[in-house]
């Protein structure tokens, strides 16, 4: 029968030389601690986490290749990473509709309305978000696009028989005209939209 391992953190001595540790040169924000963890009969040194560090606006050339995205510099000297296409779509390119706004934004709207039924945990939904955002921009003025989180508004999803997400529905004058289920190509959604313009 195997014996369970019980980690124990042991107090360390006050005399430690962190400058002799080669990890300090590799990771300047990480200051090793003399704390030791005992697991069974083995002892492992632990590094102390001292919090997040501000990244310089101009990274050194040695670490520039590690960035897969282009950094943006700000006057304060910090930086953020550029958002991906999916993050831009989720950030609000397609406005959300809820139980309280459903009547005014979808059912009483003039002209065609596209509604994407989705949920945050749904991977195919995240794949189709950028496509719906592109269609929203391409058909601006001709088609209104909204997204409805089925977790937040389950009564609407139940009312329209949503059993699988993502589901894209097109409404005209409050009446459901078409539905496309699943993460489909942009051409499929475009063909469905074109029938009602």
List strands and helices in order, with pairings.
Elements: E1 8-10, H1 22-26, E2 31-39, E3 42-48, H2 61-64, E4 71-73, E5 79-81, H3 85-93, H4 102-107, E6 112-118, H5 123-138, E7 144-149, H6 154-159, E8 167-172, E9 175-181, H7 186-194
Parallel strand pairs: 6-7
Antiparallel strand pairs: 1-2, 2-3, 4-5, 6-8, 8-9
Q: Can you walk through the features of this model?
A:
By secondary structure, this protein is of the alpha+beta class. 28% of the residues lie in helices and 26% in strands. The protein has helices at residues 22-26, 61-64, 85-93, 102-107, 123-138, 154-159, 186-194; strands at residues 8-10, 31-39, 42-48, 71-73, 79-81, 112-118, 144-149, 167-172, 175-181. The strands form 3 sheets. The protein has a 4-stranded mixed beta sheet, covered by helices on one side. It has a 3-stranded antiparallel beta sheet with strand order 1-2-3, with no helix packed on it. It is globular, with a radius of gyration of 27 Å. The N and C termini lie far apart (71 Å). The relative contact order is 0.11.
Key features of this structure:
28% helix; three-stranded antiparallel sheet; alpha+beta; 197 residues; four-stranded mixed sheet
Largest pleated sheet: 4 strands, mixed
- In the predicted model, the low-confidence regions spanning at least 5 consecutive residues are 7-19, 23-34, 59-68
Overall geometric form: globular
The assigned structural class equals alpha+beta
Q: How many β-strands, per DSSP?
A: 9
Major sheet strand order: 7-6-8-9
Terminus-to-terminus distance = 71 Å
Rg, rounded, reads 27 Å
Helicity level: 25-40%
Whole-number mean pLDDT = 73
The number of distinct helices, counting runs of at least 4 residues, comes to: 7
Q: Which range does the strand content fall in?
A: 25-35%
- What is the H/E string? EHEEHEEHHEHEHEEH
């Amino acid at each position: 029968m195997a014996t369970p391992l019980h980690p124990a953190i042991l107090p360390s001595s006050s005399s430690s030389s962190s400058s002799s540790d080669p990890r300090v040169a590799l990771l300047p924000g990480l200051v090793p601690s003399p704390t030791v963890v005992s697991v069974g009969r083995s002892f492992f040194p632990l590094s102390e986490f001292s919090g997040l560090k501000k990244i310089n606006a101009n990274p050194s050339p040695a670490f520039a290749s590690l960035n897969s995205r282009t950094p943006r510099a700000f006057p304060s000297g910090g930086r953020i990473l550029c958002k991906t296409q999916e993050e831009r779509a989720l950030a609000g390119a397609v406005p959300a509709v809820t139980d309280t706004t459903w009547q005014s934004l979808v059912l009483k709207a003039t002209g065609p309305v596209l509604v994407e039924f989705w949920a945050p945990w749904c991977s195919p939904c995240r794949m189709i978000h950028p496509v719906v955002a592109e269609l929203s921009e391409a058909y601006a003025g001709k088609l209104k696009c909204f997204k409805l989180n089925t977790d937040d508004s389950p009564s609407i999803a139940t009312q329209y028989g949503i059993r699988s997400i993502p589901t894209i529905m097109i409404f005209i004058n409050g009446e459901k005209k078409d539905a496309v289920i699943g993460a489909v190509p942009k051409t499929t959604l475009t063909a469905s939209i074109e029938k009602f313009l």
